Amino acid sequence: MSTSATADLKLEAVVIPVRDVDRSKTFYQGLGWRLDADFSFDNGFRVVQFTPPGSPASIQFGTNITNAEPGTAEGLYLVVSDVHRARDFLAAQGLDISKVFHPETPGSQFQPMADEGRADGTAGDRASYGSFATFADPDGNVFLLQEVTKRLPGRIEATATSYASVTDLVEALKRAAAAHGEHEARNGGEHDANWPEWYAAYMVAESHGEQLPD
To answer: At a CB cut-off of 8 Å and minimum separation 6, what does 84 contact?
Structure first.
């Protein structure tokens, strides 16, 4: 197979199986997710699409859209920059969501709403990819909040640095500010007039999983 050219393949929607479409629609509206579509047809086909805030991908459900058993979708990732903030926001909407945890046993984050193999709180040193919270929709489809602050190398387009939302950008700026404060302290505590350049270099390197500036 030739690898000289590629075609962009953007994953934009994931179908989840539900039993009661209107109940599910009410649930996701209650989370503040954007309703993109609700189309019905004479043959009984109906498709509803929601997009989580800041997400480039959406979920779809409806009637005559999947043969999967309702509630069998698991491990649906919702990546966040601050898992405590995201978890508290969802809980404030009345959602039954787990406490923030990190896996002590590999894979325990995928065991729906179970405590075995999990330890309370964020991962040591707030390691990126290591902290979670989980919740289920009315049918039992399971979503997993995962805190990601620094991408592993190769996990992002080499020529692009972007943030999905204002919140993600703010959190990145906060991390850059904290790191820059340590940078100034290491250099005698003097004000760094070139802080915008330092911030930019730090945020791009963090986003791409590259060596952070000193």
So the answer is: 100, 122
| Structural tokens at position 170 | 């703010």
For residue range 165-196, list pLDDT tens digits in order. 787 788 888 888 888 988 888 887 788 888 88
Pairing of strands 58-63, 13-15: parallel
Instruction: State which amino acid sits at residue 100.
Output: V
Mean pLDDT of 155-166: 66
* pTM of this structure: 0.71
Closest CA to 130 of 80, 177, 87: 80
Nearest C-alpha neighbor of 24 from the set 192, 140, 169: 140
Closest C-alpha among 163, 147, 146 to residue 204: 163
Q: Whose CA is closest to 142, among 102, 99, 98? A: 98
Q: Which residue has the tokens 């919702």?
A: 78
Please, which residues bridge with residue 63 across strands? Answer: 46
Number of Cβ within a 10 Å radius of residue 88: 13
Instruction: Evaluate whether 50 touches 96 at the Cβ level (below 8 Å).
Output: no
Q: In what order do the strands lie in the sheet with 76-80?
A: 76-80, 142-147, 132-136, 101-103, 118-120
Residue 148: both structure tokens together: 């990601």
Residue 186 to residue 127: CA distance in whole angstroms: 23
List, as one string, the DSSP characters of 81-104. S-HHHHHHHHHHTT--BPPPEEES
CA distance 81 to 157: 19
